[in-house]
Design a protein that fits this description.
Residues 51-153, 185-293, 327-448 form the Rhodanese domain. InterPro entries: Rhodanese-like_dom, Rhodanese-like_dom_sf, TST/MPST-like. Keywords: Repeat, Transferase. Helix 8 crosses helix 13 (415-424). This protein is 26% helix and 17% strand. It has 464 residues and is an alpha/beta fold. The chain is globular. It has helices at 43-48, 63-67, 99-105, 121-133, 144-149, 169-176, 231-240, 256-269, 280-286, 319-329, 339-342, 386-395, 415-424, 435-442, and strands spanning 22-25, 33-36, 39-40, 55-59, 79-80, 84-85, 113-117, 137-141, 157-158, 166-167, 189-195, 208-209, 213-216, 221-222, 227-228, 248-252, 274-277, 291-292, 332-335, 357-358, 362-363, 404-407, 429-431, 447-448.
Length: 464
C-alpha cells in the first residue's frame, strides 16, 4: 500500500520595588530598544491588581500546569483568568529577528505593566529578562504558590474541564514507575506510538518510549475516503492490541495529526481514559527519559467492555449528512487545511482529484501543506494555547457560541482543534470525518474555489 498519510512534523514588603535605571539592549531585535529594569510585585499588590486594566499577567509554566494539573503541589491548579501563556521553554527557540512580533502577537501591550508569574523562579527570571529586553515594563511575582494555595483565590483561577487529556512526559514516566500521578486512578495502561505502517516497518517506531507499542493508523481507517472503518473491524483491531474500554491508553506521535486522530477514534469507540502525551518523542527525550528500538507486542484482549461505538455522536461521517446539518442546524464548516488548499490552488493530495472547499466553509488555520499543522504548535513543539486559536477563529467570524464542524482533507488535521475544544469544554463542536475528500467525491454538493481571498490571515505564530 502506498503511504498516503505518513508525513513528519515535529511536535506550556507590600509594594513594588521601583528603580529608574535603564539599559540598551540590541541582541534580540534589529533596532535597539530600551531595556527597563525588572521590578517585583508583592502578594498583596498582585491580588489587588488582578482586575486592573493597566496590568497584564503572564503565565510562564508548561501546558499541563496552565491547563489544570497541580504542578509543584499547588492546591488549586490552572491559570489566572485572562492570563497570557508564554512558557519559559520558548526561550531560545524563537528566531531573534522575529521575537518582538512573536511576543506582541501573544497580546502583550507595551503600554501596560507586565506581571510574570510561575512557581519556578528560574522560569520567571528567563521570561522577565526576555520581555524587559524587548522594552516591556516587567514585574516579577514569585509567590504564586501561596496565592494558588489560598482557597479565597479560587474564583480567579481557571482549570480546563478536561485538562487531564493532555499529559507531560513526567506524568507518563510516573505511570510507568508505578506511581499515581494526578488524575490517574487505574491499574492497567498501555503506551502507543501512533503512525502509519506495521510495527517493524513504521519509521517512527524505530526508536520509541521504552515499553511502548506501535499503533498503525490503518487499524482505524481505510480508503478511498479514509473514514473510520466499520465498528466491528475497529473493535477487532483494538482487541488485538489489548485495548479495552477500561484500560488507560497513552498516545504520542511524531506526526501529531496521527496521534490526535487515533485519540478521537478511541473515544468514539468507547475507551474511557485516553491521554495524549504533549510534544511527542522529542519532548520525552528532552526530559531525559529512556527509549528503545525493540518491537513490543501487546497481549490480545477478549472483551472490549462496551458496545462499539459508545459515542457515535462524535462522528459526522459522510458529506451528504454534513450538508444536511449545515442547512438544517446552522452548523458552520471550519476548514483545517492549508491556505493553498482553501483557495483552490491544490487539492492537497495526489489521490484527491478536485480542488476547492465545501460552499461557505470558513478558514480555520493549519499549516503550509497536508503534513503541516504549525499554526497549532508552539516553539517547543507542544500544543499551542487553545485560547490563541479561538482568538484566530473569532477573527474569521467564528463565535464561541457557534455550532461548528471541523474538517480537513481526510480527517487527520481537524483532530487537533477537535481535541482542543474537548480539553477546554467548548460546546457545539463536531468532527466531520469525510472532509474535502468525501465532499468532492460525492459530486453533487456545492463547492467554493476561494481564489479571491487574497493573502493567508496571520496565524500570529511566526517563530522560525
Amino acid at each position: 500500500m502506498i503511504n498516503f498519510k505518513k508525513v513528519g512534523i515535529i511536535f506550556l514588603a507590600s509594594g513594588f520595588i521601583l528603580s529608574g535605571c535603564t539599559t540598551k539592549d540590541s541582541n534580540t531585535t534589529s533596532t535597539p530598544v530600551e531595556k527597563k529594569e525588572i521590578k517585583a510585585i508583592s502578594l498583596e499588590d498582585f491580588a489587588k491588581n488582578l482586575s486592573n486594566s493597566e496590568y497584564q499577567f503572564i503565565d510562564t509554566r508548561d501546558d499541563e500546569a496552565y491547563n489544570g494539573f497541580k504542578v509543584d503541589n499547588v492546591k488549586n491548579g490552572g491559570h489566572l483568568k485572562n492570563s497570557i501563556q508564554y512558557s519559559a521553554s520558548f526561550i531560545g527557540k524563537v528566531n531573534k529577528d522575529k521575537e518582538a512580533k512573536f511576543v506582541s502577537d501573544k497580546g502583550l501591550d507595551k503600554n501596560k505593566k507586565i506581571v510574570v508569574y510561575d512557581t519556578n523562579k528560574d522560569n520567571i527570571d528567563k521570561v522577565s529578562d526576555k520581555f524587559a529586553s524587548l522594552g516591556y515594563e516587567v514585574y516579577k511575582f514569585e509567590d504564586y504558590k501561596t496565592f494558588a494555595d489560598n482557597d479565597a483565590n479560587k474564583a480567579n483561577i481557571v482549570a480546563y474541564p478536561e485538562y487531564q487529556n493532555l499529559v507531560s512526559p513526567k506524568w507518563v514516566k510516573d505511570v510507568q514507575d508505578g506511581k499515581k500521578p494526578e488524575t490517574y486512578n487505574n491499574k492497567d495502561y498501555a503506551i502507543f506510538e501512533v503512525s502509519w505502517g506495521e510495527g517493524d516497518k513504521a519509521i517512527n517506531y524505530k526508536e520509541h518510549i521504552k515499553g511502548a507499542y506501535h499503533f498503525n493508523t490503518d487499524w482505524i481507517e481505510d480508503g478511498p475516503i479514509w473514514n473510520l472503518r466499520s465498528a466491528d473491524e475497529i473493535k477487532k483491531n483494538l482487541l488485538k492490541q489489548g485495548i479495552t474500554s477500561d484500560k488507560t491508553i497513552i498516545i504520542y506521535s511524531d506526526d501529531a495529526s496521527a496521534g490526535f486522530r487515533v485519540n478521537w477514534a478511541l473515544k468514539w469507540a468507547g475507551v474511557k481514559d485516553v491521554r495524549v502525551m504533549n510534544g511527542g518523542l522529542e519532548n520525552w527525550k528532552a526530559a531525559g527519559f529512556e527509549t528503545e528500538k525493540t518491537v513490543n507486542t501487546p497481549k490480545e484482549a477478549s472483551d472490549f467492555g462496551v458496545n462499539v461505538p459508545a459515542h457515535p455522536e462524535y462522528d459526522i461521517s459522510r458529506a451528504k449528512e454534513m450538508a444536511e446539518k449545515v442547512k438544517n442546524e446552522g452548523i458552520k464548516l471550519v476548514s483545517i487545511r492549508s491556505w493553498d488548499e482553501y483557495t483552490g490552488k491544490t487539492s492537497g493530495y495526489d489521490y484527491i482529484e478536485k480542488a476547492g472547499e465545501p460552499q461557505g466553509a470558513i478558514y480555520g488555520f493549519a499549516g503550509s501543506n497536508k503534513g503541516d499543522m504549525s499554526d497549532y504548535y508552539d516553539p517547543d513543539g507542544t500544543l499551542r494555547n487553545p485560547q490563541e486559536i479561538y482568538n484566530l477563529w473569532k477573527g474569521q467570524g467564528i463565535a464561541e457560541t457557534d455550532k461548528i464542524a471541523l474538517y480537513c482533507g481526510t480527517g487527520w488535521r481537524n483532530a487537533i482543534p477537535w481535541f482542543m475544544t474537548q480539553l477546554t469544554g467548548r460546546a457545539n463542536t463536531y468532527f466531520y470525518d469525510g472532509g474535502w475528500n468525501d465532499w468532492q467525491l460525492e459530486g453533487s454538493l456545492p463547492v467554493d474555489i476561494n481564489k479571491d481571498k487574497g493573502a493567508k490571515p496571520d496565524a500570529k505564530n511566526d517563530f522560525k
